[in-house]
Amino acid sequence: MPLPLRGLSGHRLRWSFLGDTPAGTQVPLSNIPNEGNGTIEYAGKLLPIFILAPFAGSLIVIFFPSDQRGATAWFAGAIALVCFLVTAGLYPFVASGGVLRYQLDWIPELGLDFTLRMDGFAWLFSALITAIGVLVVLYARYYMAAEDPVPRFFALFLAFMASMLGVVLSGNLILLAVFWELTSIVSFLLIGYWHHNAHARDGARIALTMTGMGGLCMLVGLLIMGRIVGSYDLDVVLASGDAIRNHPLYLTVLILLLLGALTKSAQFPFHFWLPHAMAAPTPVSAYLHSATMVKAGVFLLARLWPVMAGTEAWFWIVGLAGLTTLLLGAYFAIFQQDLKGLLAYSTISHLGLITVLLSLGSPLAAVAAVFHIVNHATFKASLFMAAGIIDHETGTRDMRRLSGLFHYMPITATLAMVASAAMAGVPLLNGFLSKEMFFAEAIETHLVNALDTMTPYVATVASMFAVTYSLRFIHSVFYGPAPNDLPKKPHEPPRWMRAPVDFLVLACLVVGIIPAQTIGPFLHTAVVSILGERTPQYSLAVWHGWNIPLIMSFVALSGGVGLYFLMRSYLASSVEGPPVFRLLQGQRIFERVLVTLSWKWARSLEQHLGTRRLQPQMCFVVLLALVAGAAPLVLGGFKLPPLLIRGVDPAFALLWVIGIACAVGSAYQAKFHRLASLVLLGGAGLVTCITFVWLSAPDLAVTQLLVEIVTTVLILLGLRWLPKRIKQREDAEDLSFRIRLRRLRDFILAILAGGGMMLIAYTVMTRPLPETIASYFLERAYTEGGGTNVVNVILVDFRGFDTLGEIAVLCIVALTVFALLLRFRPQADSLETPEQQRVQNAFDDDHPDRAAGDSVADYLFVPSVIMRWMFPITGLLAGYLFLRGHDLPGGGFAAGIAMSIGFILQYMSGGTRWVEERLRIHPLRWMSIGLLVAVATGAGSWLFGYPFLTSHAQYVTLPIVGRFPLASAILFDLGVFSLVLGATVLMLIAIAHQSVRAPRAQMRAARAEKEGVR
Amino acid sequence: MELILSAGIGALTASGVYLLLRPRTYQVIIGLSLLSYAVNLFIFGMGRLRVNAPPVLEPAGAGDLASYTDPVPQALVLTAIVIGFAMTALFLVVLLASRGFTGTDHVDGREQRHD
């Protein structure tokens, strides 16, 4: 039942409405946070360490000097180690089936909480992530070359670790998606670490596109899932399996989630990104592409296994993807010539195996899946590291060039052999155990269909291929004749570079020989946390007697060995990639799809539907607006309101006759008489302003008047740079039919738009006002906002956040104007002195008693003296407007603009140079101070434990000024004032300066010309 | 009152829209300004027209909608005026820069053949 998530604020509420979900979704006791047990609650508080420590470490590490490789590695390693130790310390809490939780409200109204949650399964994953993390850091310390920027590597590495831990520890579906995307992004950066290498860039891009798109699909799936369940809380979701499986949207959710999981785990047909990701440094591959990132997909499948699995759709889709991947991955791996390529395809194949296990829907198979996740992580990480050592010590990873390395690096060779034996599934190693469990499950019948029947055969064949490629890895690299053309002379790696491999291989052996005593309890905890009461009886013994799985293993082992020796000579010289399939490259298809989608289709769409001309676009926009405005009226059965002539004041009517005349005149004159048009525009603005006064909106009138002045000055300053356009006599023949038609069309559109607006405005205004939120503000403006001017209280208090955004916009606009004008080069014909000044100068030249420039200097002499003396008065007015703002019309906006008018009047009267010799205005400082004050006022309320921008009001009495309201909002308003002042002055000055810069540019140009002539 | 104001809004809109569709940048900037007057008045009108209604509360306490003007459209329009100003300024500068770079004041940055 889809329940609306809005309006659910408290945690308690969410639990209570769970009762509305379909029957049978009782929350298991183990999943409810244990309120009585204080220690478990206390332990839960440690969970944020897993996220905070690596992220903080990442931020710190980036500032390490790049030559401090040792210190950087030590620091990163210490962070990883701390995380591992905390994980280890938390084991007792989860061992008994407990769930650690940490919860922080995020957006509770939307059901979003920052919930971290650790149960047995999450613990197992955290242990893997942190333990292998420590080992990889140690390894990377020796692997990374001196010229690599190591701090960046470790910073990204730690960030990745935090994101991955976030994925496994998320207790909220949306939080999970956030961390999931973070892993995609950080892995993009890690794969592209050597960004000078084109392969690395391509690999990173492909990986990000695939996993990013998958993640997006998954997010949609999770959102739908949250809707179905009624909560995004993982515990609630895990308890609502039946509701999800029986919901009509189940299949949609399933497909979307699988798109996320299968792309992340590189399952067919999305597998191709993983081999390309091998361009990453080997420690990255060892970490991301064996133990963590690619495991996120199967982690999600296992995590949601209790709620999603068991249906036919799940079985078919997951099973088919898994089986295909298992077989194709193993087959492709045989034909790789690059060591890491082989391991990449092998990883794809093993992930396919895990996917198949999860697809079966049987609890025993789920146990095997979890077991194999751990086993694969151990042997594959060690193999990647071994491959990296070989690459590091010989300079190549090409198996056609490598041979006979056993003599040069016997210990590494032995370790690699044990690890690849585990990969092949040789008895007494961990890979063997989980593979046997897989075989045992494969031969079981789960659902009667072709896929189920096929599974054991496919499993055996894939396992045979696994033996072949594992053997190939060992045999072609370590045996055979001594290598002859290697870039470096091979030798054993440094002691501590090999240590992680030692440890992991030892783990493979120990787990392989005494599984029940080593991995057993941890595995059991993990399995119980997924399966709960459905946990089956299983045995981790090495020897189960002579049974079919053992025979299958035997067939696979002998078949694989045989196959290898048959293909050996072909492989030794063949090109990269399997026959036939090599031609069908996933990457090519991917590139082609991308090109088609983002280039070809986009181009043709642009060609057919787009235009670079603005007028058709504007015409379309106006038409669209007309249709959008008319459609609801027509469809909704709009009736014309009765014509109602009431309260007509002749003065008001006359006012608007003038207003309309101004508007139409302004439109008519805009082409040839710009100044006239501007004056008429100002007339329309004044009429608007008077209308505001008339209709009881003094605040608007004040602001409108001031803005009107500034806008006019601004446009006046701009007029100087526009081309001259002299009206030619427009004879009937001069105007082509096309132009007439277009003007007629525009005219009709304009009349329609104007008529429509008039109609709607009239209709709405003649209807009674319904109950609005206005009453809320009217009631609380004084009692809670502490001001009697409701409009101002709304702006600086109730909706202060909007105002903060608005002044930020103003700030950005001013900076953009400033930046644009810095690069402004006026057109040549605008460069010369304006005509008026030329006339004035000519007058000076004609009269011997006048020096050149006298007329220009004396121009508007009386007004300019007045303007100069008006400056303090303008300042006083601005201060007055500012102080009365909270109670009477005025406020920061009006005051800021008034003050800026004061400044610009100085510029107008004295000229730019005169002002700047006497007055230094720092608009940028005003702006930054304003923004800082506004934000600081908002943040100040945090100190008192209130939300951002909470205001406090009180009256103060100052000598002379008298009693005035001093709400903390007035500080905010002060920020607004300062910013508006700075922004307006910056814009005006920037435009005004052009006329100073232009003559300079002219002089430069003239000088350059002169030098050119010389 | 309503009829006069809505006629004014209509005339401002019509002039503004006509200018929006013109080829010269200056025409467009004047058109946008006219259009923003129209829209501001329209939004303001949504709070209904009140002559001689007090916009400022008595310092006694709560006010109600019957005896005071509607403050919400006023607050909205106040914001709109300032943003409109910012937009005009930005557009003006883009206009000037475009004229400097392309040498024409046509909205497309180049003259059309039929103009």
Plain-language structure description:
The complex is a heterodimer of chains A (1014) and B (115). By secondary structure, chain A is mainly α. Chain A contains 42 helices and four strands. Chain A has a two-stranded antiparallel sheet with strand order 1-2. In chain A, strands 3-4 form a two-stranded antiparallel ribbon. In chain A, α5 packs parallel to α18. Chain A is elongated. The N terminus of chain A is likely disordered. With 115 residues, chain B is mainly alpha-helical. Helices cover 63% and strands 0% of the residues of chain B. Chain B has three helices and no strands. In chain B, α1 packs antiparallel against α2 and α2 packs antiparallel against α3. Chain B is elongated. Chain B starts with a helix and ends in a 13-residue tail after the last helix. The mean pLDDT of chain B is 85. The chains are: A mainly alpha (1014), B mainly alpha (115). At the A-B interface, α27, α28, α29, α30 and α31 of A face α1, α2 and α3 of B.
How are the strands of the biggest sheet of chain A laid out side by side?
Answer: 1-2
* β-strand amount of chain B: under 5%
What overall geometry of chain B do the principal axes of the alpha carbons give?
elongated
Total helices of chain B: the number is 3
Briefly note the structural class of the backbone of chain B.
Answer: mainly alpha
- Quaternary: heterodimer
* Euclidean distance between termini CA atoms of chain B: 42 Å
Counted by DSSP, the helix tally of chain A is 42
Cα gyration radius of chain A (Å) = 38 Å
What Rg of chain B do the Cα atoms give? Answer: 19 Å
Broad shape of chain A: elongated
In round numbers, the mean pLDDT of chain A is 84
Strand percent estimate of chain A:
under 5%
Order of helices and strands of chain B: HHH
Structural category of chain A is mainly alpha
Count the E strands of chain A: 4
Q: Give the N-terminus to C-terminus distance of chain A in angstroms.
A: 88 Å
Q: Mean of the pLDDT scores of chain B?
A: 85
